[in-house]
């Protein structure tokens, strides 16, 4: 029996991790969500699969993470095999700003970076530290943090993406912390990884997709294909992305701990 906890499991890739883990009835799956009441599709999934436990957990609130770890400890017998910190938030209103357009205004700048740093920097630390005692008692001893290929400076330059500053800065901080934690935790046998899931279609709204979203995706695809002719034809499905990530996570060993890889398990950022 293996146990898994996933932050930000209400929708998108987080919920897909839960869906794939729960297929094995011997797994015990902890789906961490900040608003269980509104996680309708996750609740439906948990009604069909009794090995899913929905736990309230806001990664931007340390006490919430402590409480979540305590609840999981009581169910799992004080241990956890794999933690996946997948939750993210960022400031959509300022996503179009390039660095030089960030206002010389302290409050506005803090507000712009608030969500990204709270989830990808502080939330990364709080999720990790709250669950470390359980991971230490687990068998696999793995902690995985979702990142993005846009953290790679070469990718940013080739794709020509000067926007989404808060989101990418938050993930860059997360990547550095993954290396630092890996150094610290090696003697305890705990392995940590930053993984980019590829460019994934997580759209969950009514079809057809909004025209603006289709246009934005077409532009993103054009830029990535221009940067890398082998990039791929479009977005990955959540099912494929998570399946490939799970193969990488299964193979994570001490040598790879502390690194940043794609869903291919290396530094290849194509689809
Ligand atoms: N999709 C892609 O193409 C792509 C590409 C590169 C990297 N990634 C990374 O992969 C991960 C998942 O991406 P996604 O596209 O599935 O994201 P998403 O659809 O935007 O989902 C984000 C999840 O995070 C949760 N969340 C936000 N703030 C939270 C908080 N304070 N506490 C707990 N949960 C919180 C959301 O919950 P609510 O429902 O409550 O809002 C939601 O479940 C992210 O880390 C993202 O950066 C994704």
Automatic annotation (TrEMBL):
Record carries keyword Signal: no
Gene Ontology molecular function: oxidoreductase activity, acting on the CH-OH group of donors, NAD or NADP as acceptor
Keywords in alphabetical order: NADP
This protein's record includes keyword NADP: yes
Pfam families from the UniProt entry: adh_short
Protein name in the entry: Uncharacterized protein
Lineage: Eukaryota, Fungi, Dikarya, Ascomycota, Pezizomycotina
């Amino acid at each position: 029996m293996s146990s898994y906890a996933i932050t930000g499991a209400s929708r998108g890739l987080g919920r897909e991790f839960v869906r794939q883990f729960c297929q094995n009835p011997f797994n015990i799956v902890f789906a961490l969500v900040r608003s269980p009441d509104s996680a309708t599709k996750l609740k439906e999934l948990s009604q069909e699969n009794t090995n899913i436990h929905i736990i309230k957990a806001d990664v931007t609130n340390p006490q919430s993470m402590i409480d979540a770890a305590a609840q999981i400890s009581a169910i799992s017998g004080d241990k956890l095999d794999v933690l996946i910190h997948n939750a993210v938030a960022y400031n959509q209103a300022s996503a179009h700003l390039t660095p030089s357009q960030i206002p010389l205004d302290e409050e506005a700048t803090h507000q712009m970076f608030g969500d990204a740093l709270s989830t990808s920097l502080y939330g990364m630390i709080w999720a990790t530290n709250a669950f470390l005692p359980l991971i230490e008692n687990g068998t696999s001893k793995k902690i995985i943090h979702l990142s993005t290929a846009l953290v790679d400076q070469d990718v940013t330059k080739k794709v020509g993406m000067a926007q989404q500053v808060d989101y990418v800065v938050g993930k860059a901080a997360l990547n550095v912390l993954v290396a630092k934690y890996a150094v610290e935790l090696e003697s305890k046998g705990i392995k940590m990884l930053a993984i980019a899931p590829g460019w994934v279609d997580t759209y969950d709204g009514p079809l057809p997709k909004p025209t603006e979203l289709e246009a934005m995706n077409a532009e993103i695809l054009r830029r990535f294909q221009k940067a890398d002719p082998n990039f791929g034809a479009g977005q990955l499905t959540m099912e494929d992305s998570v399946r490939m990530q799970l193969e990488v996570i299964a193979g994570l060993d001490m040598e790879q701990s502390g690194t940043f890889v794609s869903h291919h398990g290396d530094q290849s950022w194509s689809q």
